Fold this sequence. Notes:
Layout: E1 7-9, E2 12-15, E3 20-22, E4 30-32, E5 47-50, H1 52-62, E6 69-72, E7 77-79, E8 82-88, E9 96-101, E10 107-109, E11 131-136, H2 148-161, E12 167-170, H3 176-186, E13 193-195, H4 200-208, E14 216-218, E15 233-236, E16 253-257, H5 264-269, E17 274-276, H6 284-294, E18 298-304, H7 306-315, E19 320-322
Parallel strand pairs: 3-4, 4-5, 5-6, 10-11, 11-18, 12-15, 12-16, 13-14, 13-15, 16-17, 18-19
Antiparallel strand pairs: 1-2, 2-3, 7-8, 8-9, 9-10
Amino acid sequence: MAAPPLLTRPEGLYCPSGDFFIDPLRPVPRALVTHGHADHARSGHGAVLATAQTLDIMAIRYGEEFTASRQIADGKMQIGGVTVSFHPAGHVLGSAQILVEGAGPSVCVSGDFARVPNPSCAPFQLVPCDIFVTEATFALPVFRHPAPEDEIARLLASVAAFPERAHLIGAYALGKAQRVIMLLREAGWDGPIYIHGALQRLCDYHISQGVALGDLRPATIARGTKADFAGQIVIGPPSAFAATWAQRFPDPVIAFASGWMSVRARARQRGVELPLIISDHADWPDLTRTITELDPDETWITHGREDALLRWCALEGRAARPLHLVGYEDEEGEA
């Protein structure tokens, strides 16, 4: 195989022919960004190329001056000696896989991706490539996520069983909160959903992009009494549950939406009464299915548990290698 167009540097994945980085770990002159989570999208770059929604999300999170120059990804674009294109990753609103094509083998950098339908963003697309760069957040055979609608059914059953209690759901502000809200709407919950103030701007942005979140209201006791939240659903960022905010509600049922909730020890450590296994990342079956369906010449593995997926590739007769990029870690509750 000819030399691939990407190589690893301390800043992250680098393309010499195009003189750009993909999801760099520190500020660089030119960055291509897969999505808006902070372990992939950092401020301070000289120029950023991303989907329009990712650029908007970065501006919401970091301010309008998060970069000196921004460009919206649009079709196939020539950058130096390579062609790049962005394709839906199914992770969060605006998330994309980045395909790099040049004289050598093509490389698809998936960023974070999910194969389960997500009503709050565009679905994942298989992108034919010679080299597939995959995350490995849940790359252990034990991680087999249940259907998200079944987890929402458990939540609604708990709400019905404890009408005198508020249900507080920890959900990351970008992607997870909006997905939980949409899953609730699809399950028939048409009443108000109360949200922490830290979720407001990103929820408003999703609504502006056509994501129908329904009746959202501020989760503030100042607007009423504890009793007003009995039987209600309240969503907040995980960090808020360690503060006095969570104590404002009547005997709350503490829930948490994350793929990590399949690990009982994590749920216990957080004091979670109702763990909801809802993830925006591919689990083990979907990771292996994706590699099988793409059938790349080589798989590069990063961002998580590399060893098990490397071993699976070896047993399947597939060429694979770890990238050992340091610095990609899920933000609290994002998985």
